[in-house]
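Appendix B. Raw example, untouched.
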Amino acid sequence: MSGLPSFRAVILMVAAVLVVTAAAGGVVVILGDDLVKTANEPVRRKPTQRPQQPSPRLDQLVPTAAPVKDFGQGGAGVTATPPRVLAIAAGTVPKSTRFALSGLKYVQKVAVVDAGAIKVAGTGLNLLAVDPADFRSWTPQPVADQPAVWSALARGELVADAGAMRKFGMILGGMYQVDGGPRLRVAASATLGLMGVDGLVSADLGRSLGFAPGVAVLLHGKAGKISEAGVRKVLGKGSQVVMLDAAHRTPKQQKPQTTVNVGRPGSYLDLYKASATRCPGLSWTVLAAIGQVESSHGRNNGPSSAGALGPMQFMPATWKHYGVDGDGDGKSDIWSPYDAVPGAANYLCANGAGQGGEKLRKAIWFYNHSWDYVNKVMGIAQAYARTYA
């Protein structure tokens, strides 16, 4: 299919992300067509002080097809056997290699599935293509027990990892156009616990997308005991191995707190300038432009019709991950400009804004999913640069 990565490119793209992506936290399964208020809010209408809740229009309702297959409740019939090791082999894993893996000490169960990478609006997603019935036990028990997740896979829909939903600002129930491929509906969000994997699709859909067959290996066994060196030796050169049970292997270390203190500048101009310093390469004019578009510099703080709050119009769930205590008063307040503006700089920086160019434009797009929004912000930023040069 035109536009899809080559076999070698698929392996390299999946393997590269596996090395650097962190696993998500607690187990949550989200289903339905409601908005997922995660790391990015949907394109928003102009916020109002007391928003009305109009009935959805026809062009806003997403048609849903009846499931082609219904999966029963998990319960005692599905016992979760969480993967301790995830590996990407250099090629299809033969049966002899599977037997060798199953013979390793402490390994109790082996699974081999297809894997590949797709792009949506230029953003890469790393996916596993699985048989819903066979793969169900490889997920956390609350996910295995949720029949709607597996029915969605059987319908040819995407089940996205909760961390990927936050990272990419995906909307539950939304349709996403695969670059050079079909449109995919995000039917469910769940914490999969698979480091570097952004979601699951069915094996049939994976084949149609040109995924690499039988290259992803999952091993279950006693936590912290399976030998990483043994797995690498069996899989051979070119394989990538990620120990999903790393927490059982090394002492837990407390994550250092990021401190951001911009004080309480006397003007928005000084606040934008001070806040931008926490993201090297980010111009204060971009923060000022977003502040102008979102709330007219604190003159219309919402809540918006989508539930965004404060002078930089954060969704509460986004604020939970990226909000900061900007003035050192011991709390991060979504309504306070002294916290919200450096929080916006923190969020933009996490999405690559400090690198400038297309990375900056993409970071602004993550702030609000609209290229018109990006162009508007960039235009206002340029105007500020000329005015305050």
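End of appendix B.
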